[in-house]
Design brief:
By secondary structure, the protein is mainly α. 35% of the residues lie in helices and 7% in strands. It has one domain.
Length: 55
């Protein structure tokens, strides 16, 4: 199985996450799941919680 190197934490990851354009990272850079979800939360703080509250 091919492994990718996360651009942020430099760890190997089998799952490939591509950063969003707004994050101003290289378009071809790869993130692991951990860094990706952390970025999501930084970029959209509290947004997921609000969506849950409506439901
Ligand atoms: Zn990472």
């Amino acid at each position: 199985m091919r492994k990718y190197k996360c651009k942020i934490c430099q760890e190997d990851t089998i799952y490939k996450y591509v950063p969003m354009k707004q994050w101003k990272l290289d378009v071809d850079c790869i993130l692991c799941g951990k860094c990706y979800s952390r970025r999501i939360h930084e970029y959209y703080p509290g947004k997921h919680k609000k969506i849950n509250k409506i439901r």
